[in-house]
Design brief:
single chain; Heat Shock Protein 90; 2 domains; two-stranded antiparallel sheet; globular
Length: 240
């Protein structure tokens, strides 16, 4: 194996430092918010009849905010792990990876009666665990952002050419508003819809893009007349 170029080495060092920083921040701050949440619960338990309705409201808001921060920090920790993990690149067929995603999303698929239709057969050179995570976030979003009263239908189209692999994931869901800056949806914690409309904290697309960029690829939105379409792009790789 040849030694990395100086610029490449600096990039790897910077990514490692950022990953370590995110890990430390998320781990240590999570402990603080657990304390806030725990003591707010104790206040609520011990208050008895001495609380006014406003007091109850204040404590519940403190408890809810601490819980939300703990979830966000947990996502940062997972993001750091995905960033710092050494890639274990192996040749593999795409179909078994999609089967794993189906299993991991089993509860969501059964609850929504979602249909996942896959076409195309390709071979990849990827870190299986990380690639499954990216695929899970993208397909999970396709199921989550469904239209009321319409059973979700997700299409997964895989193809290869001389430039590499393209995997397109489309749905029949609510789609993206024309005025929305879709690129911002890849920002950490950025949400395209209000917190009460759909569950989650806005990290799935960030995870997916980071994982795919670590593989030398990327993911982005495609123009769509119905629902939402995203495209995974991976560079051409010699498979053995």
């Amino acid at each position: 194996m040849t030694a990395p170029e100086p610029q490449e080495a600096r990039v790897h060092a910077l990514e490692r430092e950022l990953g370590e920083f995110a890990y430390i921040v998320s781990h240590d701050l999570a402990a603080c918010f657990r304390h806030i949440k725990g003591f707010s619960e104790l206040i609520i338990q011990d208050a008895g009849s001495g609380f006014t309705p406003d007091h109850w409201s204040y404590c519940n808001q403190i408890h809810g905010a601490a819980e939300k921060c703990a979830v966000m920090l947990e996502q940062l920790l997972l993001y750091s792990r995905a960033t710092r993990k050494m890639l274990d690149i192996v040749p593999t067929d795409f179909a078994p990876l999609l089967d794993v995603v189906r299993l991991q999303l089993g509860a969501q698929i059964r609850e929504t009666q979602a249909e996942i239709i896959a076409t195309g057969s390709v071979r990849l050179a990827v870190d299986r665990d990380l690639f499954v995570q990216a695929l899970k976030h993208l397909i999970g979003n396709a199921i989550k952002y469904r239209r009321p009263g319409i059973l979700p239908r997700v299409s997964v189209e895989a193809a290869q050419d001389s430039t590499g692999t393209r995997i397109r994931i489309g749905d029949n869901g609510i789609g993206l508003p024309p005025e929305m800056d879709a690129e911002k949806l890849f920002w950490m914690f950025h949400r395209g819809h209000g917190e009460g409309e759909y569950p989650g904290c806005g990290t799935g697309l960030t995870f997916a893009r980071r994982i795919l960029r670590r593989h030398g690829g990327d993911v982005g939105f495609l123009p769509a007349t119905e629902g939402t379409w995203v495209e995974i792009r991976l560079p051409r790789t010699e498979l053995h």
